[in-house]
Design a protein that fits this description.
GO terms for molecular function: hydrolase activity. Belongs to the HAD-like hydrolase superfamily. InterPro entries: HAD-like_hydrolase_domain (IPR051828), HAD-like_sf (IPR036412), HAD-SF_hydro_IA (IPR006439), HAD-SF_hydro_IA_REG-2-like (IPR011949), HAD-SF_hydro_IA_REG-2-like_cap (IPR044924), HAD_sf (IPR023214). This is Haloacid dehalogenase-like hydrolase domain-containing protein 3. Keywords: Hydrolase. The protein is of the alpha/beta class. The protein has ten helices and eight strands. The strands form two sheets. A six-stranded parallel sheet has the order 5-4-1-6-7-8. A two-stranded antiparallel sheet has the order 2-3. Helix 9 links the parallel strand 6 and strand 7. It is elongated. The N and C termini lie close together (about 5 Å). The mean pLDDT is about 95.
């Protein structure tokens, strides 16, 4: 039977958009522009360490802790470089500003294959559409720059809501904005726990985007798995 869906919500990172290159490569290129040589692999490792520590100390991009997300990210960038042996304050501040700006644009993000076409077709079919993403408030701008923003009635980030997936409250807020009960909504994402399982826990339908060769997750029936985004409409309309 065809699912009676009215609302589709979407994860963004690695579902609709992906980074054009690893974070370490972007940071290394920025450093080179200032005459500083650092290995991309080392920066990637330092970034994961700095990002993890900052997330534990100030969850959700510093919301409610007196930090703007821009300050939050500036601290992550500076700490990333410090961990990789770069300590000159003036250069750290400049690099942090430049990287914050660059990650807000299509310069560092690209649309995944089939994403634009799938979103257009879902809109044409009359689905209401929204974004549910663990992202800071640059997301509206990133989506606009990548020419995807117009598909969505709302863009809900964890920074806006104050809760990050898999917290049920970010999905409940999406359902409130979409004005539909959970059984008439489906969430599409690439993360088993944060996207698929979390959406199902509030009573929504879930579709898990899984690139070929990724491991099998427990308890995901094959009809909920998307090898590519282009498979979505066939599954919904079955």
């Amino acid at each position: 039977a065809m699912l009676r869906l009215r609302l589709l919500t979407w994860d963004v990172k690695d579902t609709l958009l992906r980074l054009r290159q690893p974070v370490g490569e972007s940071y290394a290129a920025e450093a080179r522009a200032h005459g500083v040589r650092v290995q991309p692999e080392a920066l990637g490792q330092s970034f994961r360490e700095a990002y993890g520590a900052q997330s534990r100390r100030f969850p959700n991009y510093g919301r409610g802790r007196g930090l703007s997300s821009q300050q939050w990210w500036a601290d992550v960038v500076k700490q990333t470089f410090r961990l990789s042996g770069v300590h000159e304050d003036g250069v750290l501040t400049l690099m942090a500003e430049n990287l914050y700006r660059d990650f807000c644009s299509a310069r560092n993000w690209e649309v995944l294959p089939g994403a634009g076409e799938t979103l257009s077709r879902c809109c044409q079919r009359g689905f209401r559409m929204g974004v549910v993403s663990n992202f800071d408030n640059r997301l509206e701008n990133v989506l606009s720059q990548c020419n995807l923003r117009h598909h969505f009635e709302f863009v809900l980030t964890s920074e806006d809501v104050g809760f990050a997936k898999p917290d049920r409250r970010i999905f409940e807020e999406a359902l409130r904005l979409g004005g539909v009960p959970p059984e008439q909504a489906a969430h599409v994402g690439d993360d088993y726990a944060r996207d698929y399982r979390a959406a199902r826990a509030v009573g929504m339908h879930g579709f898990l985007l899984r690139a070929a060769g990724q491991g099998k997750e427990p308890g995901v029936p094959p009809e909920h798995i998307l090898p590519t985004l282009s498979h979505l409409l066939a599954l919904i309309e079955k």
